[in-house]
Amino acid sequence: MIDTPLDEIPKINASLHATFATRKTFSLAWREHQLLQIARMLQENHKAIADAIYADLGKPAFEVYMTELNLMLDRAIISAKRVPEWAAVKNLENHPDLPPHQKGWKPRVTPTPKGAVLVISPWNYPLILSIQGTIGAIAAGCTICLKLSEVTSNYAGLLQQLIPKYLDQDAVRVVCGGVQEVTKVLEQKWDHIFYTGNGTVARIIAAAAAKHLTPLTLELGGKSPVIIDPEYDMELAARRVLWGKINNCGQVCVSPDYALVTPSTTASFVENLKKAYASFYPDGSLKSDSYARVINMQHFNRIKSLLERTQGKVLMGGGMDEKERRIEPTVVLVKPGDVLLESETFGPILTLLEVDDMRAACDYVSANDHPLVLYVFTLNEQLQQDVLKATMSGNLIFNDTFMQMDVKVLPFGGVGESGYGRQVLENTFNCFTYERTSLDIPPEVEDKIYLRYPPYTEHAFEV
Ligand code: NAD
């Protein structure tokens, strides 16, 4: 990865605005071609991409294909097919709320590209989180500055080489580097900022955006809870929760962060977590090819320190290999107020907290920041409805973890501390367009609207 020279950044911004002003990105043919080029880039370089992500995160190639590459390939192709429909002018002449005399006024809404936009992506799902925003922005007809995370430098370096080869360099530019470079990028005026990352930096981004009144999408994280109904099959719950936890070694915005269990189920849940662990990693996880590692020493030490400071009881795992930056999936039973309940763990720790009943579980979730996802294991429909009413979260998933990422028809995003705005396919397109309205009022209707002209007289009230 080569850091973008700071003096290049204003030039990149100016050139993206200049390209947008030519309106070349408005063309549907241009958009479709660029989207298919993204698909081609992913297809022709899948191995190099998987290798780069492995070098950064130790993420197994299978996981890269299953949870990132195939999804983006599919979504680039779908977007290319669907963009004419998404971008089509919407005629509201037959809208049920339109009074008959306004029918001939041609009320229309045109999804219109916002302009030169900025996509800032994080390290934890480097491919999906850089490409999904880029797909949406291209589909929308914007020009794009893609700021890649410096933390995944192998992936960033690869994309720095690939994007100019596959995409229109007048319209899609990559910026690499750290805080200095992002700060310079944020000094520029953008027409939309799409940021994925943590809530602390989100506040810096939002403050910078406010200076230019730039609209924002904030895809953030937080602590995603799991609620487990004591009536649910503990073996299935444990397997599904553990699978969600081990993905990318827990370094996922939708990773189950902590589980709320009733005291009567703790032992059985943990027993089944151990059983699932043994079947996923018969030779242990620390040397397994099916388990990613912690991104860097800073995060390794952060997670290690959490495990050192917790007052909780480690019921599973806890082993680590510092040289390899590996930490076993670790289950810790804690009491309220424990350090593990304070902030997003973003690592392979599953915290267990005992609650009296399902009502207390909902109360606990409600008393904390609205999570990105709330997972609930129950077949009880009444309980499902109760949880829906009693809590708030960006997404609410019953009886599994993580699978919402594969369901491309659902809008994805947070609420409150977990962010705002929605993405995936048309929803990402919507982030980068605004609904431009138009009317065309014919001369012939003058006699129907003459009442509006002053001088205002009594007959104006004869409705
Ligand atoms: P990160 O450290 O890679 O930062 C993200 C981006 O912000 C990078 O491009 C980085 O250069 C930039 N940045 C870092 N410090 C900055 C600063 N001081 N000023 C301006 N820009 C700065 O990634 P991260 O924030 O550690 O990512 C992990 C977080 O992202 C977690 O909280 C996770 O839950 C969240 N996340 C959310 C989603 C979602 O879709 N909702 C997806 C993935 C991750």
TrEMBL record:
Record-level Gene Ontology MF annotations: aldehyde dehydrogenase (NAD+) activity
Aldehyde dehydrogenase domain ranges (all copies): 17-436
GO cellular component, one term: cytoplasm
Gene3D superfamilies: Aldehyde Dehydrogenase, Chain A, domain 1, Aldehyde Dehydrogenase, Chain A, domain 2
Active site: E219, C253
One Pfam family this sequence matches: Aldedh
GO BP, one annotated term: aldehyde metabolic process
Lineage top rank: taxon: Eukaryota
Protein keywords: NAD, Oxidoreductase
Keyword Ribonucleoprotein attached: no
Keyword Oxidoreductase attributed: yes
PANTHER family, A to Z: ALDEHYDE DEHYDROGENASE, ALDEHYDE DEHYDROGENASE TYPE III, ISOFORM Q
Family indicated by similarity: Belongs to the aldehyde dehydrogenase family.
Name of the protein described by the UniProt record: Aldehyde dehydrogenase
